[in-house]
Amino acid sequence: MQDDFRSIKIEKDKCQGRMACLRVCPTQAIRVRHKKATILKDRCIDCGECVRACPNKAILPQTSSFSDFSKFKYTVAIPSPDLYYQFGKDVLPSTILAGLKKIGFDDAHDVACPSEAVSIALQELLDSNNLPRPLISPFCPAIVRLIQVRYPNLLDNLVPIESPMEIAAREAKREKMEELGLKENEIGTIYLTPCPAKTVAIRNPPRKKHSFIDGAIPISEIYPTLLQALTHITPESEQEKQVRGIGLGWPIVGGQASSLKREDCLAIAGLNDVIRIFEEIENGKLKDIRYIECHTCPTACVGGSLNVENPYIARGKVLRLLEKYGSKPCQPREKIRELYQKKYFSLPGKIPASPAEPLDDDIQVAINKMKRKQEVYDLLPKIDCGACGAPTCMTFAEDVVKGNAAADDCVFVAIKKFESISSDLLETILKHSRKVRHNENLS
Amino acid sequence: MRMDKSYSQSFEITGNNFFDAGKAATEVKMILKQIGINSDIIRRVAIASYEAEMNVVMYAKRASMTIEISQEKIKIVVDDEGPGIQNIELAMKEGYSTATTEMREMGFGAGMGLPNIKRNADHLKIESEVGKGTKVEFVIELKESARGGSKER
Ligand SMILES: Nc1ncnc2c1ncn2[C@@H]1O[C@H](COP(=O)(O)OP(=O)(O)O)[C@@H](O)[C@H]1O
Ligand code: SF4
Ligand code: SF4
Ligand SMILES: [Mg+2]
User: How far apart, in whole angstroms, are the C-alpha atoms of residue A159 and residue B19?
Assistant: First the structure.
C-alpha cells in the first residue's frame, strides 16, 4: 500500500542499464536486469542519490507540474529555505520571495521563520524529562524512512514535532482563508523541494493523514524562470522586511543543533555516518546525548539532489546570511513558548515500522535460506563487480536464495560451470577417440 | 544424515581495536534482521553482544564471537584469549569496573556491561581462567512472537 507513495520512478525507455545507480544506492535497493534498472521498493528510502547519478536522466522523482495547480483559486509557494542560497551572494531571501510572485504564484511564504519556531519548540521539548535518549531529528524524510526500514527500534526516538514546511503551509492557509475569505481547499500550497524525499513526506506524511502541502516542484525546475525574474526586482531596502533568525541556518549541517544552544546535541550528515550512529544507539550507546540532527545528504539540505548551486558555495552563503541576520529573532520567543504549551507543534501519531522483506516469513525457512545464502556467497568472487545486476556479491547471494536470480547469472560461476562442462566434454571426446583408434588398430 | 536446523557464523574481535569496536554486534544484527527476528529481540541481542564485544576490545587480546540461531533460540558465544576474570561474582556487580581513566574518558567503564548482558539474556554463563581467557555465553529464547519486525508489514 505504502509503495504507491514512493517517489522515485525509472523511465524504462531512457534506461540503458549503465549501472551508475546500482553503485550509489546506499540501501542496495537497485538491480539491473535485462539491461534495465529496477528499484526494490521495500528498501528504497527516496534519498535521490540515483537521480543524481543517472547519466541518462532516466530516474526521476515524482513531483507535480504547474498545471496541477490550476484547480486552486489561489496559490502559495512554500520554498524550502535552500532556495535562498541558490543565487548570487547579494540576492536576499526577500528578493527571492518577490521573484516567486513574479513567476506565477499568488504569494510566497517563508520557511526560515517557522524553522526558528521549531528550534524554540525543540528547546522547550529538550528541557522535559522522560524522553527517549537520544532524540533523533525527524526533518529529513529519508532518515525517517531508513529508521522504518532498518531500525524500527529507534522509531520512538524520532522527535514528535511538526516540520517547518508543514507549519509554514498551515499558516499560509490560515492567513489566506482569513484575508481572502477562501476555503482551505481553494488555496494551493506548493513546496519548492530540494529532494525527492520531501515529496514523499508530503504525499504520505508518516505521522498523520494529510499534509498541509498540496504538491511539490523541484527547485531545479523553477530555477531558470526564477533566475530570469530576479533580474527585474528591486531589492527590498527596509531592514525590517528581511527574512531573519536562526532558522536561516537550517539548510546546513549543524544548523538545527546549534540553534538549540546546548552542548548535548550532535549533527550528523551523510548516510554512512548516520548508519554508524544508529547502530550505536541500537546497541544502547549515546544515552548522554539529547538530540541528534541527522541528514541523508552529506552537506545537508543545501546538497539536496534537486538543488542547483554547489552545496559548499551555498553553505558559504548561509554562513554569511546567518552572521548578518541570524541573531535577530523573527518572532517573540514568548509567543512560541505559548504555542508550544498549547501543543501547536506536537505530532502525536505513531510512525509504523516497515522493515525490508526478510529472507522468508517462516523463521525456519529463513534460517535455511541464510545457510544457502552463505553457500552461494562462498562460490562468488567477492569483488562486487556488479555484472550480475546486483550491487554486491552478498546482495546477489541473497537474490539467488530469494529466487530472484540464478547462481550462474554471475559470470564467474558461469565460467566455472563452463570449464567443468568443457573438461568433462574433452575427456569424453578423448576417451571415444582412443576407443575408435583402438578399434581401428584391431581391424 | 540429520539436517542441522540452525545457522551459525563467527566473527573475529581484536583487543584494543577501538576503531572496529561494535562491528561484530552489527554483523549479528544484520543476520537477525534478514531472518526476520522482531525488533525487541534484536535490541536485546544488540545490547548484550555489544557489551560482550566491548569487553574483549577493552580487556582481552582477541576473541571469536559466534552466533547460532535456530527456531527456538539465539545463542552467542564470545570466547577470548586474555587475562581472564579473577572474581566473576564481583565483576557481575553493577558499577564494578577495572577500566582505565582513558577508557572512562571515551565513555566506557561504567561497570554496567556484564549486568546489562544478564538483564537482556535469558541465560548467561561465564567461564574464565586467569591468564588464559574468558568465555561468555548467553541465550535469548525465541517464543511465539519472536518473528517479524512489525505487524504493519
Ligand atoms: N572479557 C574479559 N576479560 C577480562 N576481564 C573482563 C572481561 N569482561 C569483563 N571483565 C572484567 O569485569 C569488569 C566488569 O565488566 P563490565 O560489567 O562489562 O563493566 P566495564 O566494562 O564497564 O568495566 C571489567 O572492568 C573487567 O575487569
Ligand atoms: S532513491 Fe536512494 S534508496 Fe531509493 S533507489 Fe535511489 S539511491 Fe536507492
Ligand atoms: S538531507 Fe535534506 S535534501 Fe537531503 S534528503 Fe534529507 S531532507 Fe532531502
Ligand atoms: Mg564492559
Answer: 30
